[in-house]
Amino acid sequence: MKLIKKELKEYLDQKYLYYNRPEFILDDPIQIPHSFSTKEDIEISSFLMATIAWGNRRSILKNGEKLMQLMSYSPYEFVQNYNGEKLPFVHRTFNAEDLQFFLQALHNCYVKNGGLETLFELNEGEFGVKQRIINFRTKFLATSHPSRSEKHVSNPEKGSAAKRLNMFLRWMVRNDGRGVDFGIWKNISPAQLYLPLDVHTGNIARQLGILKRKQNDWTALEEVQKILIEFDANDPVKYDFALFGIGANHELD
């Protein structure tokens, strides 16, 4: 499916409006944090859900619900009082040891550093969401951890498209009043956000002619991001809804 840019923008704008609605939440990992109302509960549950958001969506939701149950449905309180216990949890390759580290890092983050949002802050002279993710990764991994757990914290410096962290940032930053994204972080502009690029959105982007690179890495992300910024410089990541929805519903098959 090849469209000229004007037609493609109109098509993606239409699909964004169609898929960015509360019905989207019903089978999406963002469903779990939508059961909370306080900022800290939302951001902690969102971060953990984004971390395990790969594989079968039914399995993601099932394991996300189990994880919230293990935290007594009070993620912020649980993290604040976390004592290092290993919880019986596994989602694909993310296991109890990884969760133990993540919870300890989150505990340190909230008790010592002022919260999860501060880990994504830029230092003087820095810019861009890539640097924010790098800064987050450096600070998060400062907590003692097994080397195996590092694979669960994306590293754009090594080429990762950081799909799950970019998705988490979309959830936290975008606030369009349409009932899906939370928009509870105010220190990052939606204009800075990047597409959560994965195999599905990558394939749709290629079918639409806005991505040529074969790998779904950070270089590919920069390539597709340039087009999305042309379509909407203030909110380029809104097209995640369109690309994901088109793929999930096999509209181009």
Task: Report on the architecture of this protein.
- This protein is mostly helical and 253 residues long.
- 48% of the residues lie in helices and 0% in strands.
- It has ten helices and no strands.
- The protein is globular.
- The relative contact order is 0.13.
Would you tell me the structural class of the helices and strands? mainly alpha
| Assembly state | single chain
Give the low-confidence spans: none
Tally of individual domains: 1
Helix content: 40-55%
Outline type = globular
Radius of gyration: 18 Å
Work out the strand percent: under 5%
Q: Largest beta sheet, briefly?
A: none
Secondary structure tally: strands = 0
Order of helices and strands: HHHHHHHHHH
Average pLDDT number: 95
Given the structure, what is the number of helices?
A: 10
What separation lies between the terminal Cα atoms?
A: 10 Å
Topology summary:
Layout: H1 5-19, H2 39-51, H3 57-70, H4 75-80, H5 96-112, H6 129-140, H7 163-173, H8 199-207, H9 218-231, H10 239-248
Helix pairs in contact: 1-10, 2-7, 8-10
Brief synopsis:
By secondary structure, this protein is mostly helical.
Structural features:
mainly alpha; 253 residues; single chain
